[in-house]
Amino acid sequence: MKIAALIPAKGFTNAKQRLSPLLGVAQRELLAEAMLRDVLGQAVLSRGLDGVYVVTGDSGVSEIASFLGVHVIREESERGETEAAVFALASMGQAGIDAALVIPGDIPLVRSDDIELLLGQLSGHDANLPFALLTPSHDRMGTNALLLSPLGVIKLGFGYDSFTYHLAQVEAAGLPPRVLENERIALDIDEPKDLERFLEIATHVRSSCSPNEHDNRARARISGGRTYETARKMGIVRALENANRFGKSCGGWKS
């Protein structure tokens, strides 16, 4: 069975508008690009994938994906996430892909081992039998990972309360409701509170004290490295620190 990851991605122009109370247009564009780079980077590192695909109608996204060794499926124009995913899955099927892991490009905490954990749920499963697994967003209103075999095993419908929708589609297909919670995949960045939570987690990871300096360096490399550095350079981390949104201990941050 050939398994690939699919990340639908829009262009960065005027991205993440719900972050407008916290970030300006240019800052949101930089943050959206950093998040996509983090997600693509971890997907490429994941073992068990026969390819990583991006579906987009944007030339800038295409260039980034190609540079990282990701297959690009181009739309003639940007459509919604559902339409883009359906379009891409059909193209992937024609390329010989049997199963797909669909994840968004705004989950910067995701690590390659999270992706491998999801893929492992297919291990030992009869390839001739349909399979669907869901990972919800942190508020359980969105679907932040969909593992599908075959590619069209359920009808897709991203957007408001997509987790409930996809669970209903799994039931309609006569499949067991497989759900795997994962806190890193669950945290997608749409609103200021999401970004604050991400920065709190990433900051704590980086400041965790260990007598082994190698462990500390390893911590600093995980959890959305490019996204964190982009936010730090924008001054967001310092602003939240000054606002006492998170504080220090152990030479770093308090819990």
Would you mind describing this structure in some detail?
The protein is of the alpha/beta class. It folds into two domains: 3-186, Spore Coat Polysaccharide Biosynthesis Protein SpsA, Chain A (Alpha-Beta Complex); 192-242, no CATH class. 43% of the residues lie in helices and 13% in strands. It is built from ten helices and seven strands. The protein has helices at 25-45, 59-67, 81-94, 112-120, 162-172, 183-186, 192-207, 213-221, 225-234, 236-242; strands spanning 3-8, 52-56, 71-74, 99-102, 131-136, 143-149, 178-179. The chain has a seven-stranded mixed beta sheet, sandwiched between helices. α2 links the parallel β2 and β3 (71-74). The longest helix is centred in the first third of the chain and has 21 residues, at 25-45. The radius of gyration is 18 Å and the shape is globular. It starts with a strand and ends in a 13-residue tail after the last helix. Mean pLDDT is 88; it is low at 210-221 and 247-255.
Concise summary:
By secondary structure, the chain is an alpha/beta fold.
Q: How many DSSP E strands?
A: 7
Spatial order of strands in the largest sheet: 3-2-1-4-6-5-7
CA(first)-CA(last) distance? 44 Å
Shape: globular
Major sheet details: 7 strands, mixed
CATH class of the largest domain: Alpha Beta
Would you tell me which CATH topology of the largest domain applies? Spore Coat Polysaccharide Biosynthesis Protein SpsA, Chain A
Radius of gyration: 18 Å
Q: Which whole number gives the mean pLDDT?
A: 88
Continuous helix count: 10
The CATH superfamily of the largest domain appears as: Spore Coat Polysaccharide Biosynthesis Protein SpsA, Chain A
The proportion of strand residues reads 5-15%
- H/E element string? EHEHEHEHEEHEHHHHH
Question: Ranges with pLDDT <50 over ≥5 residues?
Answer: 210-221, 247-255
- What is the domain tally? 2
* Helical proportion, percent range: 40-55%
CATH architecture level-2 label of the largest domain: Alpha-Beta Complex
Helix/strand/pairing category: alpha/beta
